[in-house]
Amino acid sequence: MEIRHFRYFLCVARHGHFTRAAEQLGIAPPTLSRQIQDMERELGVRLFERSQREVNLTAAGQALLIEAEHAVRQFDAAQLGAQRAARGESGRIELGYVASAAYSGMLQQHVTRYSETCPGVRLNIRELPMAELPGMVRDGLLDLAYVRSPMELPDELQAITLHQEGFVLALPASSRINEVPHIPASRLANETFILPEQISGTLEVAAQGGFVPRLGPQPGSLVAVITLVSLGQGIAVVPASVVQRINLPQVNYRQIVDCQASSWLSLVHRRFEKAPAVMGYVQSVMGGT
Predict the structure, then answer these.
(1) Nearest Cα to Cα of residue 197 among 161, 170, 236, 244
(2) In Å, how far from its chain's centre is CA 28?
(3) Cα separation of 285 and 49, whole Å?
(4) Residue 110: strand, helix, or coil
(5) What is the distance between the terminal CA atoms of the chain, rounded to a whole angstrom?
(6) How far is CA 80 from the centre of its chain?
(7) Count of Cβ atoms closer than 10 Å to residue 2 Cβ
(8) What is 115-155 written as a DSSP string?
(9) What's the rounded Cα separation, in Å, for the pair 173 and 3?
(10) Beta carbons of 148 and 264 less than 8 angstroms apart
(11) What is the rounded distance in angstroms from the CA atom of residue 127 to the CA atom of residue 145?
(12) Per-residue CA distances from 87 to 75, 84, 274, 276, 281 (Å)
């Protein structure tokens, strides 16, 4: 028997009449009758008691009715699930990010827009050390990752450029640099720099100031960086979005007057990605950039 036999059986059971069932199914009544007879021969039971006016389910037919309804529902659900997966409307995406993706609001914007479009896709979202993210995407441990560029990527990966922003200086409240009305990069030559995960801003500020920076610890997250600044362990060059997002005691944020350095968020994905759900997320991001 095939799934169509169950559909024919259920239609006859609902209508109690071969002709009306055949009209709904779009087939000739004799054809429908033969299909039901084929079922009965294969099962070795009678499914319907027939009369000229109507047909009624036998005990065997009543027993089959529940299972047939279940079988058709399961079959339809399987078809729908496969079609939704092929369209990228179901499945799971492993998504990694650096904290500045959340501070900028880009992560929230993208996830919200995608989830509204594809509510059937489960997003597993994790903050992870930036240095680990590209390798995890390449190796299939993550599907997508938000990183702060510039950074070198494996050849297997591709990056979509997102939000660009400049840098600001995070100073301990006790630092005498706070007394300087306009802070040039050269004024920072003798300071110890606490390093965020993306150190390009620190290096560019030092280059513009004409000095080799004295590098301090690299504690990891931006919150950890600003915490060390608040404890007087050094200064830090951090993305401008931090000013509105991380407000710790004993920390002042200042502009560097001659700083032209900038960085940008990127969404990293595998260059030849085939998973429909993942590509749907990428297309959603690109459509909103």
Answers:
(1) 236
(2) 50
(3) 60
(4) helix
(5) 52
(6) 22
(7) 8
(8) HHH-TTEEEEEEE--GGGHHHHHHTTS-SEEEEEES----T
(9) 75
(10) yes
(11) 9
(12) 19, 5, 12, 6, 12
Which residue in 216, 174, 224 sits closest to 191, CA to CA?
216
> Within 10 A of 50 (CB to CB), how many other CB atoms are there?
12
The answer to whether the CB of 212 falls within 8 A of the CB of 206 is yes
Name the pTM for this structure.
0.68
CB-based contact 157:134 (threshold 8 Å): yes
Give residue 171's identity as a one-letter amino acid code. Answer: L
CB contact set of 58 (below 8 Å; sequence gap of 6+): 45, 46, 47, 48, 49
Per this entry, what is the length of the chain? 289
pLDDT in tens, 166-206: 899 999 999 999 999 999 999 999 999 999 998 999 999 99
SS3 98: coil
pLDDT digits (tens, 9 = 90+) for 46-87: 999 887 777 888 999 888 988 888 888 888 777 776 766 666
Residue 49: beta bridge partners? 56
* 232-258: burial string, b at 16+ Cβ within 10 Å, e else: ebbbbbbbbbbeebbeeeebebbebee
Task: Say if CB 24 and CB 41 are below 8 A apart.
Answer: no
Encoded tokens for 192: 């110890």
> Checking phi first, is residue 65 left (phi over 0); if not, alpha (psi -120 to 50) or beta?
alpha
**Whole-angstrom distance, CA of residue 103 vs CA of residue 240:** 10
Q: Are strands 157-172 and 91-97 parallel, antiparallel or unpaired?
A: unpaired
Residue 217, phi then psi, degrees to nearest 5: -70, 160
Residue labelled with tokens 């021969």 = 41
One-letter amino acid for residue 50 of the chain: R
